[in-house]
User: Fold these one by one.
Assistant:
Number 1:
Amino acid sequence: PGDLHWTAAGSGMLHEETPIPGGGVCEGLQIFVDLPLAAKWMQPKVLHLDSADVPWRRQPGVDVRVVLGEHDQLVSPLAPPTALTLLEVSLQAGSVFRHSAPSTETRLAYVLAGRLGIGVGGAVRIANANEAIGFANDGDLLELTALEPARFVLAGG
């Protein structure tokens, strides 16, 4: 739980996905990233980051894990073949999480649990559990407010 397993298929890779033995519950996200043209035929490789090695910070009402990329001076030790941000955030009701990213980065917020008000560029959108909202980044600060306790991932690249 909480680990990141990255498979860079590059020129091709076979893999098998095996569920947890004994019928346990497994919660996971699969995110497919289109590699830049120069990396499409690279040798395949696998990267792994244990949960214990993911930088994290707890502030009043906000827990953030920096799985890939960086946030607020926390930097993931994992370097995939293309620059990405992947944050896992838990918010108490009424708490606000702020994140800014380079203007070259498009962002996606996927709500795992709860309900968020997501503000960017002066507009606010609502996202519920199991919904995702994508954003083109105009260099604006992204603000995510928990309308009830919430957990989400913020991805960018």
Number 2:
Amino acid sequence: IRSEAKYAQADDWVFHLSLIVSVAFFVILFLFLLGERLSYIREILAGIDALRNGKEDHIVPLEGSNELTQLAEAVNYLSQTQREIKTKERTLSAEKEQFVRALSHDIRTPLTSIIAYSELLSGDHAVEPEAQSRFLNLIRHKAAQIKDMTDILLDGSKRSPEYFYDARLLMQQLTGEFEETLENDFTVET
């Protein structure tokens, strides 16, 4: 009887010990996996912070295939898009600066002619009436060139808005063109 009691007590002790080891193993495994997820969430948050601070070169590593991976892909896509936008902005700014320089050079050429002819007409030299008429025509012509060039320069800010008589048709055509792309990129759950 005594050995049976010791056997039962040992059996209880082994059962409780195995239960404690199992629970401890489960908790350790759970915390390890949770730690990995939390670490990945921290990496995604670091990517979002980098994006917010304008660091376009930050890339969040893709791990697994779950919602967090989709979020990391979205952050990487936004980062790539921000890089492309800034590159396009720099390119457009450089092109605009080059355009303004070229146009200002083109404006200076007729302006120099206007100044020279007007100084000639207003100077102490006697200019024949026929030459005066020709110089005045050249001044008018060069002034018209300058006006045309400044109109080109300022045309972007004076555009009138476009009016659509059938906006519904326009929207149907636009959505028809992008329908397949939209269906591939977005899913709607009902």
Number 3:
Amino acid sequence: IACGGSKKQTGGPKGPPPLPANGIQIAIPETEIAPGEDRQTCWFTTFESDEDVWISGFEAFQPSGGHHIIAFRSLEDVADGTVIDCTDGSAMALWMPLLLAQDVTGLELPEGYGIKIPAKAKLVFQSHYVNTSSEPIKTRDYVNINYAPDQDNIIGAAPFANSVLDLTVAPN
């Protein structure tokens, strides 16, 4: 079971995508995915804003093998730059969904709607990769966070996610 979409993913070790016109770009540290590996890696950082910010969308950029990037708000006090393997999903118990993709490359909210990122929020970016090749792949993901053009007249939106970590599908 997986998510999917119709947009082509771009980005990676070649260099960053263009900066957003009204927002910020976040570069997720480079990592290597072994041949045949299916892994989710999570990276912690602090949202560097002294004020709450409403965002109208985000764009995710991953090279080949990328499956998704999801942003969470962590309830933990984890040092910036910490990277963990979060493939098993148990770490997500203390995280709140923040930026979920409507397809694999991001999310764009309707005009007048926004998702609030609190000032100095602890963020976690989850990058999921499936390396179907026989060679290791180096990855470098980027996220463009687009600020809502009108920060004063926003209807708040909230992401929702449901995970089942013990799903078993019998053979045949």
Number 4:
Amino acid sequence: AAHRLVEALCERDAAGAWSITVIGEEDRPAYDRVALTTHLEGADLAYPAHDARVTVVTGERVTSVDRAARTVTTSAGRVAAYDALVLATGSSPFVPPVEGRALPGVFAYRTVDDLDAIRAYAEGRTTGAVVGGGLLGLEAARALQGLGLRSAVVEAAPWLMPRQLDEGGGAMLRRRGGG
């Protein structure tokens, strides 16, 4: 979302009057999370480089906002002033609060680093399980298959992609699927 916003701002600033700073917690600039699974196939997910109006700060997260002073402070102690502030916080993976979630071999599926860890752990293994049958869960299962693992998807709802499909759509999918 932040990357798309920066693109839109740069397109609208034909005079080049704006200076934009993007601060991100990951150690790499923004990348295409929608195509995350293709990272395992060797795809470069990085968005094209920004222009000179854009400063990208990686490996730091904003820890405080001082609205009166119009500044943000990062985890590294960097203080950045702003005229307008957009908080494009992204999302955090939901990891069910179940016993064993911190054991080796249990991963979130959210970042390039997550996929690199999954790839390393998958070497020499034959099976994997994915908790969550939403869009990202199905992508994770596809990624495991791409790594040569048999994968199973565990979903609490009575059909896959429960947030993407309402009950009527889910019922229709069940009928067409024969059960």
